[in-house]
Amino acid sequence: MLFDDPALKALKQSFDSQKERAEGVVRASDRGFGFMETADRDSYFITPQDMKNLLHGDKISAIITEDNQGRRQAQPETLVESALSVFVGRITINSAEGRRRIFVTPDSPTIKNSFVCDDHRKDKSAELHSGDWVRCRLTRHALKDKNFRAEIFEYITSAADPKAPWTVSLRALDLPLECPALPADLKFNDQDLPREDLTALPFITIDSEKTKDMDDALYIEKKDDGSFVLFTAIADPTGYIDESSPLNAEAAKRAFSIYLPGRDIPMLPRELSDDLCSLREGVERPVLCARIPVTAEGAVLSERTVFTLATIKSQGKLIYNQVSDFLEKGSAEGFVPSDAVKAQLEILTAFTQVRDAYRSSHAAPFRNRPDYEFVLTEDGALDHIEVNYRRIANQIVEECMITANIACGDTLAAHFNAGIFNTHKGFDAGELQDVLDLLRHEGFEGATAQSLQTIEGFSAVRRFAAAQESGYLDGRIRKMQEYSQISDHPAPHFALGLKNYATWTSPIRKYGDMINHRLLKALILKSASPKLPDDETLASMNQARRLNRQAERAVRDWLYVDYLRPDVEKKTVFHAEIFDVVRGGLRLSLQENGAMIFIPSSMITEDRTAIEFSVNTGEVLVKGQCALRLADVIEVRLVEINRGTRSILGCPVNPVGGLMLPDPQAVLARRK
Fold first, then answer.
1. CB hemisphere CA count around 663 (13 angstroms)
2. I want to staple 172 with a disulfide (CB 3.0 to 4.6 A). Which of 63, 88, 664, 672 is the partner?
């Protein structure tokens, strides 16, 4: 009765309202306790008992208190947003005491909780076994509902499935496992449109050996004054796919083809992407073609570019490495080009050199970072990794595609003020002062906040960074840049140093390129413009691009852990470039194979007071002095590989900043 007293209730509410509160994100530790980090970068301790009701990544509101030692800590009060909603996990079946219970553990390196799980699948034809992969949704959260509980709504695959890395990675991101089906009534709708016959010209394709979806072919002419005319012929899938068709709606939903190690999932039916639309050698194909004038100095004359509907016949499916060997060494095993093809390669090489020089002085050169090609065995295991640098053949295709997309972007901007544009805003507006401080420290003078917000000013900074012997400045400024976006209206692409950039050279693989094809066709035919995507479709296209990249990284990480496991016992020494400096250690990329590893501070020194990981400057300070920084390359060994979390721990081979290296095995024992 006493607790029902209105005066006491009012007094309690008054006390509660005066308590200090904060909102932040939960960060769990390996030892049971955690922290709540706020937007202002304040950090509050969370006790192990309170962590039992929380997940790493939860956003919560908490009461801020002090313990007996004066430590500020967060007492969780309300759940603002759960770290989990829909997730992938592995199940465990517990049949103790005659009662069958299902538990699910999320497939996450940071969430180790297991939840009681209900089987709510519509299709229960697949019997569940321990270790199977499933998709679930969290139905109860302990902070709000006193306990955790989840429900299964999709079976993914069995524990022993060798294709699990691909299947699980795709379904974890709600991505499709197969390409769309070919409609039974599919036909070429543009057969009556007039097309220019270019079959006599020696167009060529340059791709990897296994590529089947070839959507671009090249032909080039060099004039007496040293200028060029680049012909880019691009496959024409919109001739088959009507704008109002279900197949177009499916392409819009997928937005991109998905490319994973050892597997691809085309955006279009394979019959289209790999055959009917592919610019195969010796086969006549309908194309959308651009004649692009380029000056002897390398400037693209977009206003003089002519787009036409045409028919071509590729006179050579050329392979990157063979072309590079031929051009760089004078010959290539298994490759003897005809005189016409040889002449094309010679002019394309000259064109590439001119364009590269032009971009290097007007925009910024590309850093020659390697690509890592995963070569798989027949059963899907990783056999070996080939390290491929950008050689001349890759540069030829790169420069031709950039040139074609510049011409397209400028043309769409001039005639429609609309299209699908790749955009990049340059530096994050909130980081401008930090950029200026960094540039002054690194010896770049004359930059202002205003100049950094222009393409010219941004490009000058990128050129300066690229010219440095160390990649430190390049690594720092990349972390201060905005992310690229897809837009339906013209906007600059600062990272390329361009006023407009609209891709149209990969319509088999990108839905945005199909839209740009329809706009270019409308320009050629003087017909009504097609409908542009709404904001929701644009957002889904940007999201699809991010998810596809996440899926590729996930599969690579999965394959790396098995591939590199023997190197732990062998104590193999790798060269690793520092990719990121974080509060607890270093993230590095192995130069020999591209794998990402983590070196925690405990693997560098036992004296935590002697070392500081400066996240803001990307440096490792030992007793106040810089010992390592972004882009530095050090020798490392692998000490632990966790297949469950697909994580790789390493340690330095040599002491950092004169500090004594701890025993890695002793460190691992303490971590456990």
1. 4
2. 88
Percent of the chain with pLDDT over 70: 97
Query: pLDDT tier at 18 (50, 70, 90 boundaries)?
Result: low
pLDDT, residue 1, reads 47
Check whether residue 576 and residue 541 sit in a common domain: no
pLDDT of residue 382: 84
Q: Please identify, among 29, 55, 81, the residue that sits at the C-terminal boundary of a domain.
A: 81
- Residue 120: which domain range? 86-161
Give the pLDDT confidence of 380-395 residue by residue, as tens digits. 778 899 998 889 999 9
Decide which of 30, 47, 81 is a domain's last residue. 81
Reply yes or no on whether the pLDDT at 487 is more than 50: yes
581's CB contacts (< 8 A; 6+ apart) are 587, 613, 614, 615, 618, 619, 620, 629, 630
Say how far apart CA 576 and CA 561 lie, in whole Å. 16
Parallel, antiparallel or unpaired: strands 72-81 and 86-94? unpaired
Are residues 609 and 643 both part of a single domain? yes
Write the DSSP symbol of residue 256.
B
The 3 state secondary structure assigned to 477-512 is HHCCECCCEEECCCCCEHHHCECCCCCCCCCCCEHH
Q: Which of 5-14, 29-38, 117-126, 510-519 has the lowest mean pLDDT?
A: 5-14
Residues 499 and 389 in one domain: yes
Give the integer Cα–Cα distance in Å for 307 and 230: 12
Residue 169, domain member (yes or no): no
Distance CA 610, CA 532 (A): 58
- Confidence class of residue 5 from pLDDT cuts 50, 70 and 90? low
Residue 12's pLDDT is what? 55
In a domain, 215, yes or no: yes
Query: 600 pLDDT exceeds 90?
Result: yes
Helix (H, G, I), strand (E, B) or coil at 456: helix
- Residues annotated as part of the active site: 207, 213, 215-216, 320, 509
Write out the two tokens for 644.
Answer: 């469950």
**HSE-up of residue 186 (Cα within 13 Å, Cβ side):** 19
Tell me what the pLDDT averaged over the chain comes to.
Answer: 93
Question: Is 366 in the same domain as 492?
Answer: yes
Kindly report the CATH number assigned to the domain that includes residue 632. Answer: 2.40.50.140
Residue 639 and residue 597 in one domain: yes
Residues 207 and 91 in one domain: no
Q: Is the pLDDT of residue 583 over 90?
A: no
Number of structural domains (the chain) is 4
Instruction: Please give the Cα distance from 206 to 341 (Å, whole number).
Output: 11
As a whole number of angstroms, the distance between CA 382 and CA 105 comes to 27
Please spell the DSSP secondary structure of 329-375, one letter per residue: HS-BTTB---HHHHHHHHHHHHHHHHHHHHHHHHS-PPP-PPEEEEE
Alpha-carbon distance of 518 to 265, in angstroms, equals 24
Report pLDDT digits (tens) over 182-229: 999 999 999 999 999 999 999 999 999 889 999 999 999 999 999 999
Residue 454: inside a domain: no
Do 312 and 355 share a domain, yes or no? Answer: yes
Residues 257 and 121 both lie in one domain: no
Is position 65 within any domain? yes
